[in-house]
Amino acid sequence: MPKPNKYAIGLLSGTSIDSIDVVLADFSSAPPQIVAVHSHPFPTGLQAELKQLAVEINDSSPQLTDMMRLHGELSIVFADAVNKLLRQNHCSRELIAGIGFHGQTIGHQPKAELPWSLQLGDAHRLSLLTGLSVVSGFRSMDMAAGGQGAPLAPLLHREIFQAGDTSTAVVNIGGIANLSHPNGSGFDTGPGNCLLDAWILKNKNQNYDQNGIWAASGQTNEKLVTRWLKDPYFKLASPKSTGTDYFNLVWLAQHSSLESIPAADVQASLSELTAHSIASSLNSERDTTIAKLLVCGGGAHNTDLMKRLQNLLPDVNVSTTAVAGIDPDWVEGLLFAWLGWQRLNNKLVDTREITGAEKPLLLGAIYQAVL
User: Fold this and answer.
1) Coil, strand, or helix at residue 23?
2) pLDDT, tens digit (0-9, with 9 covering 90-100), for 151-171
3) Please, are residues 268 and 220 in contact by the beta-carbon 8 Å criterion?
């Protein structure tokens, strides 16, 4: 007979806003195991609105009514994603402790006078529509305790990829890239796929550069890369975090004049920027010998980007988390299942070496519908 409440669900959409990830994980033994996964598409109109809002949030004041409509609309789509996974896998709700729900990040300002990070998605509505407890608001408590609220991925990397391992680093390349060092530190290195995705969408009307083929067809403009790397963010000491409200096409226009440069060369240079910012961040933290770099997130499928990382790190074995037994597409979903599980079991999470929070914390608030 299956053990009640042995499962938890991780639910999120990353900074790329490409789809909704749902991960069902089994926590009856350590380490947790992925049982089932589901990638759920955004309705086209909703996806476009969210991408536009993420750009505008730092430059203007989007209408509050529009933002709150999206807040509710998102929770309905997220609930559809969860319910579809449960139906497809014939999974009883009685086996599930709850959902770790990150929501959709729209803005992240850890350096504001009163730091904030905004994720859309109504946890109350999600709980009602799924019939499950929901844990959400993971970043808020961390920021209240003096942390940056991000990145959170290194918490899981430390748990399942680096336990007792002093030679493996992990990088999650989503819209923003974050690095987990075996010395315990973790931080956002800068843009992951966000600038690559934005540039190819503008120039070729494609959502992403499949396998990095377009970037590989261009020539890297070293002067451009050097200019971009002068941005103050890259020189900040950890802990540090950022978002697509900072690294976007507006940032690109502010830092370079691209009219006379072939678009494919710009894409190649943006790929080099991502690879260089990751590699230099790894080298700056290297107080131990790094033998392996495990890559997860969408960037793990970008052949051009993976080659650039390997070229910049010739003494490091660069591969994906698949070699450690976890599909790189589902690591972040597993993260939020794990965070939800920790909170539902009242376990403190120590983010001090990653976000700079002052002490271990209970991350997230629990929302429960009465059914």
Assistant:
1) strand
2) 999 999 999 998 878 899 999
3) yes
